[in-house]
Amino acid sequence: MKDLVVIGGGAAGFFAASEVLRKKPNASVVILEKTGKVLSKVKISGGGRCNVTHQCFEPDKLIEFYPRGNPWLKDVFRQFQVRDTLRWFEDLGVKIVPEADGRMFPSTNESQTIVDALQNGAKGPQFSLKLHSAVRRVSPGSQGFELELESGETLWSRNVLVASGGSPSGNGFSFLKDFGFSIVPPVPSLFTFNVVNHPWKELMGLSVPSATVKLEKSDLSFTGPVLVTHWGFSGPAVLKLSAFGARLLHEREYRYSFSVDWLPELSVEEVERQLFAFQLANPQKRPDQSMIFPLPKRLWEKVCEESGLSAYFNWAEAGKKKVQEATRLLKKRVFQASGKTTYKDEFVTSGGIDLDEIDAGSCQAKRFPGLFFAGEVLNVDGVTGGFNFQAAWSTAYSASSEIVRTLK
Length: 408
Ligand SMILES: Cc1cc2nc3c(=O)[nH]c(=O)nc-3n(C[C@H](O)[C@H](O)[C@H](O)COP(=O)(O)OP(=O)(O)OC[C@H]3O[C@@H](n4cnc5c(N)ncnc54)[C@H](O)[C@@H]3O)c2cc1C
Hints:
This protein folds into two domains: about 1-190 and about 345-405, FAD/NAD(P)-binding domain; about 190-340, no CATH class. About 30% of the residues lie in helices and about 25% in strands. The chain contains twelve helices and 20 strands. The strands form five sheets. Strands 1, 2, 6, 7, 8, 9 and 20 form a seven-stranded mixed β-sheet that branches. Strands 11-14-13-12-15-16 form a six-stranded antiparallel barrel. A three-stranded antiparallel β-sheet has the order 3-5-4. α1 (about 10-25) crosses α6, α1 (about 10-25) packs parallel to α12 (about 385-405) and α9 (about 270-280) packs across α11. The chain binds flavin-adenine dinucleotide. The site of flavin-adenine dinucleotide (FAD) has 37 residues, from α1, α2 and α12.
């Protein structure tokens, strides 16, 4: 009978095993990993740099970055928040430093540093890691839990931590079927928008530091950097919208309209007023060569082309209607989207074990004491910027604290 079996050798699984062994060095702990490699997502995360967390030290603010998990995570973050993550890794000799946008990375700028720290942390006389050990079934017993591996081998443990990650297909929860958990069907989150017959394709690579992207027929909108890509649009504002709109967009089968306000600081009236004022003051200037707003030149030229302003050699010839059309395009350019592209730097699955099943203080199943959950297997996901790993560390911490408390 083991003290703890961890299902999944990823971020949450290794963190929890390290934490339990740090406090109970003689505990018998096994990590079961179905593949031949551990921590593979950590290794490729953040473009090989691992965006470990985000510089946000208020649990009440931190939860706002989670489309799924707010407010459940509040109790989790009160126990273990960003400051604790920094301290935890520092104790393992890893310094984590912020970037200007709040994302935090190891000072070495290499994800291998985090992989090494987590692997070095998980050690003890009764610790073992079993690779190629996919769990086929977990069942509750009178003394603990029985785990059946794909190989046919069985194990018994007083505590089980499920840290098996997200499951885009939904098949990844089948080993839990004996418990009858309610599972929120998985759908993708954090993707970029593909645009039908991309009308702005030639502007590929262009970025605007602050634009508002709004999902039509919803009240979801976000302001931030927007990037024109080969297929459509990307950038933090788009990714945030994809995360908060993940379920809605899935329901719409990824066919939807969204609008972009390229000048969110200015009202429609103010944009129109400035355009008319410029027109009046510069009758001989070419409209498409007039830089009136702090926008990339190519974007303004595109607005002139679409509004018809570029057909005129000077402002004097351009009528009022074209100015109004340019205003509309600057404030609300609607695009038709069809499909999505997974954001390769960080993608997650929304959905997983329903949080109503899990006690937030301990990440323990309410109906099955001794069975714990951590990381992406839960119906918790955050936007880009280090929030998904933070959720993995914090839930793993909550679970391991309760496991340590119950171990004699
Ligand atoms: C390309 C990419 C980059 C990312 N970059 C970042 C980033 O920089 N910052 C950030 O915050 N987030 C990032 N994320 C998200 C982050 O990686 C995940 O949220 C995080 O890894 C979740 O940790 P986890 O331990 O729950 O699951 P995982 O890391 O997915 O680990 C789960 C493990 O369980 C194993 N497993 C599954 N089923 C079984 C089974 N039945 N038996 C045994 N083992 C099993 C899997 O093989 C896997 O090793 C990124 C994701 C991707 C895909």
